Amino acid sequence: MVYKVGIIGFGKIAQDQHLPAIRANPNFELTAVASQRGLKPNEAKHTFTDYREMLRDLRDLDAVAICTPPQVRHTIAREALEAGKHVLLEKPPAATLSELEDLRRIGHDMRKVVFTTWHAQYNKGVDIARDTLAGRTVKRLVVTWKEDVRHWHPGQQWIWQAGGFGVFDPGINALSIVTKIMPQPVFIKQSDLQFPANRDAPIAAELQFSTGVEGADLRAVFDWRQTGPQTWDIEIDCEGGPLMKLSLGGRRLEVDGEIVADESDDEYPQIYRRFEELLASGQSEVDEAPFRLVGDAFMIGRRVQVEPFQD
C-alpha cells in the first residue's frame, strides 16, 4: 500500500530529513505541504499556507508529519486526528506532557496512529548498546552534548521562547538514547539551567541522574555555544565492564576500545519504515520517557542567568 502523506511545517528539519526519507520510501507519496511561507517541493501535488485547508480539502490524505515548533503542535495534531489522519510527530512531540497524553487519548478514540519520533534511537549502535547493557549495573554515565545553535537553528527565534526548549531541543536526543539503553529507570536528581539574560529558554544545562544505584556517577552536560567540531557523546562504564562510548549522536559505538558500529546517517529513513509498520498494524507508538526527563529537569531546575545571547 502507498500512503499519501502531507508535511505540516516545511522548515529545515522537514527539508533536510523528512523530504528525502519520504522520497526514498516507495510506500509513501508526498501529496501536500502546508507552509506559512508557501514553500513547495517539486513532487508535492498541493501546497497550502494554512494546514486547516489541507485537512479539509484532501479527504484521501492518510497521514501528516508535523514539523512545526512544539508550541503549536498539539492543536495541529489534534485537528489532524479529528480529521481522520494518522500523525507523525517530530521531536519534541508537544510543548507539555499533558498535551502529549491528550494526543495519545485522541488517537486511541479516533483509531488513528500517533507516532512520536526520537530519531537518535534509530541507530544500530544504540540498539547494540541497549542489548549489551541489559542486566548490568551502570556505575558511570557521562553525556556530553555540545553544538552550535547558530549552525543548526539559524535565525529561529521560537527556540528561545517559552516552550521552545532551548538547549533541550538537541539535548532531548541524548535523553532519548539514555532512556532506551539504560537497564534501570533514570531520574533527574539535580538540574542547573543557564538562561541568557535576554532569553526565555536555556542555552546550557548540567544534569545529575539517579537510578537507585548507590555511588553511581551519572551526569550530562548540554551546551549550545560550541563552535567548530560538534560533540554528541555518551560514555558508559559498568560494574565488571564493559566500557562503552556512543559518539556521533549514536551512530558510532566503541566497546572496550573496539568499534562495533560505525554507520552513515539512516535515522529518518528508519523512522518512515517504522511508521509504515505502525500504519499497517494500526498501532500507535507514544514514547514519553525522554520528554518526561526534560519536564523534570525544568521542574526541579535551578535557574542560572548568563550573558545575553545574540544570533
TrEMBL record:
InterPro entries documented for this protein: Gfo/Idh/MocA-like_OxRdtase_N (IPR000683), Gfo/Idh/MocA_oxidrdct_glycsds (IPR050463), NAD(P)-bd_dom_sf (IPR036291)
Ranges where the Gfo/Idh/MocA-like oxidoreductase N-terminal domain occurs: 4-114
Domain of life: Bacteria
Designated name of the protein: Gfo/Idh/MocA family oxidoreductase
